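Re: the multi-chain job from yesterday

Posting the exact lines I submitted so nobody has to dig through the queue logs.
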Amino acid sequence: MERQLLQTEAEALADAGTGEAQAASVRQGEKESFGKKFKNSYFARNFKRNWSYLLFLIPAVVVTFIFAYIPMYGLLIAFQDYMPGDSILNGYWIGFENFSLFLGDYAFWGLMWNTFLLCILGFIIGFPLPIIVALMLHTTRNKKLAKVLQTIFNGPHFISLVVLVGMLQLFFGRYGLVNNIIESVGGERYSFFLESAAFRPMYILSSNWQDFGWSSIIYLAALSGVEQSQHEAAQIDGASRFQRVLHVDIPAIMPIISVMLIMSIGGLMGVGYEKVLLMQTDGNIGVSEIIATYVYKQGLVPGGRGAGYATAVGLFNSIINLLLLIIANTASKKFSENSLF
Amino acid sequence: MKKIITAVALCCAAMMAFAGCGEKDDRTSNSLDVLKDKYGFQWTDTSKPILNETGAKEISFHVYSSKNASAKDYNDMDIMQTLFEQTNVYVDWENVSESIYGQQKVPKLGNHNGIDAIYHAGLTSNEILKYGVDRGALLAISDYLEYMPNFKKILDSRSDIKKQITSIDGKIYSLPRIEEMGLLQNPNLLFINKTWAEKAVNEGKVDLGGQEIKDGLELTASQMENLLTYFKNNDMNGNGAKDERPLNFVWNNWQGNQCDLYGMFGLNDNLEHRVIKDGKVVYTVLDDAFKDATQYLHNWVANGLIDAVSFEQSQDNFLANGKSNPDEKYGAFYWWESETVVSDPSNYVCCKPLKGPNGGQTVCVSNNPEISMGEVIFFKDTPNVEVLLAYFDRYYMPEISAQINYGPIGIAFEEERDANGKLVAKDPPAGKTTDELRLENAPLGICYLSDDAWENTVEMEPRAKLRVERLEKYARPYVPSTVTPVPNLQFTKEELDVLARYQTTIDNYLRENILKWLRNGLDDATWASHKERAVTNAVGIGEVQKVYQAAYDRYVKEN
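And the result, structure tokens for all chains:
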């Protein structure tokens, strides 16, 4: 249906195009003729009919344009010897030097590897967890309990990162709760913050603990749209609760799952620097130095290579993300009906 | 339809208007003759006003400055009003908080909209080179030295200061803050718990060679080890819990850090691991003594004599545990002073540096400079800048410096001088500490307080005096005369590129490995490969060392 509409629209536009060409050849009443054609075109008629709805789009378009597209011209500084305070078109162009510096940097592969591992491990645990939780909450017979649990699960999402890392230090610090328990049962104190082996588990598990409840909301919403009649039919056919989850609920939320999958693959290398930086110590810096913290150090800490270089590294990272997104989307289009674009 | 288009157009126009708004500067710059004739501009006699009454009314300056949270607005500070009365130069201060300044500093440098100068600018030599030499936004103060008799006198008498603040192109772009108390070069002192140590000696567990346990105690590494082991294995504070922490510090803190421990092996380590020895820039981490030290200290770490919490704790944590009452937790610690750390400082004695197994006995030589450049900068297009420079020159006069740094006469100091003509500190009013009073009433910033000022103008604070005494006894005599900190050096643009290129890599490499070695041990093969790898471009110490050496050679050669 949608495709058909698009086709008619394209035809209408093509019509308008030929009409314009004709008008040009006549060279008389050029404007009028084009105006008339336009007025009668599909686009114009459609616009006239629906303009009040389109009006609602304006704030979103304006906000996206102002805050997401206009700032993009700042990316130009990735190709400059930029110094804060310079105008963006300052003329200190250096081409791809910043990029080649980064690709040739000895830290490059370590950074990529650390970023990739941290993200992929977080993704492997963090992606299915909210789905499972949503299915569990949805299937719970006691709806009151489900509501209470959901509230509890959502709570941690509202803790700020600084507070969260403070909590981690209280719990996992050398004289923190966990170590006190370990010692009281006769174990040795373990420096979670100094052992590089402990960094990734601590980071990933705390992130997931913080966000699994919040991320499950979208699945819960999708699940509430599953038609009751399907469940009833399955019940009549003698399906158990688990079988119903497997054969009714999961297929019903599959489109959402694949959209979420594509989006999280697109953000795979896009981990923020704040929490990593807060958790970084000399002991774990070997695994906790990631692209984002590197960008921070190069761009904002005095003595780094400066804003231009940091922007180049960030842009490089975003390009990888974009590629991942396109790959995931194409794959999803090929193997299932679902895709983002 | 038309209405919508109009509305959208209006919105766009409104946005453009916001983006384009800015202050307009309607002040005019006067020639020197006009300044002299009409406004009575004079700068030679520093006891007289710089401008006449007309000047006070018609000439003004706008200075942007960060201030600490408890300070008064600079326009309301007594010292600023005193300065206005003395000079007739009207300065309008625009104060922002330190955190806002952190965000605003760089944009303001690029687009300074009617700001004439930035006070507390905090620019690094790197930034000064970029904005002063490269982009040409900053005023070269050195071209105007004749208007600054006090500052010029300092530069003429102190070539070391001049060298440290002169940029690579031979010009000076910023006014420095100089507060020379000699506190910064050796940041650590070792303190030991007196009661605990006495207990260990009395029980015959540790032999201190008959030394009394008081300030100036000198311990060898093995005596220290025995003491710490004893602290570790016994319930020293008698509370039944195993909460004694033998040796404490804050890893890689600017003071109270681990560096003094390497002094046992004759290394004058610091956080950059870079120091001048016999005129050469050397890295302590490339010295074989560093391997011996690491291997030795590894045992202390492995046996829990240095509690691993020292590597992960923040300064706040360290201080909170030190104050824990009534059970003391710290057997020994490195810090600036004992008074801020523990609740009963009288129970902690200040020791001489530890004597290493091979006889090494020295301390950290830090690269924290007592001269900070980049405190005040001026923009090139400031009208009547000569007047403003003459005004800021007054800040370097001893009594003004003292008031800038500690607070005004009448609040921080008594109106009456003592018999030697020195300022006398006034007792703070009830309910306030000296520190609070100082933060509230003193702008800090540029000043010149050096030996001369301590002798003739103002007394050091008691805490600083105590620390200087301790350093003179327990730290300075142990620093070899051939070892000095790396001064503020000036680099060329190419050199800065090299430094920027390797800084993060070197920093990460050293941070990671030094701690790893301390905690997991270091074998000779690892050390050998480290020494090879560290100087290659994979880490970059070799290149950076060359750059520093070149800059230092220039520094020595000048004048």
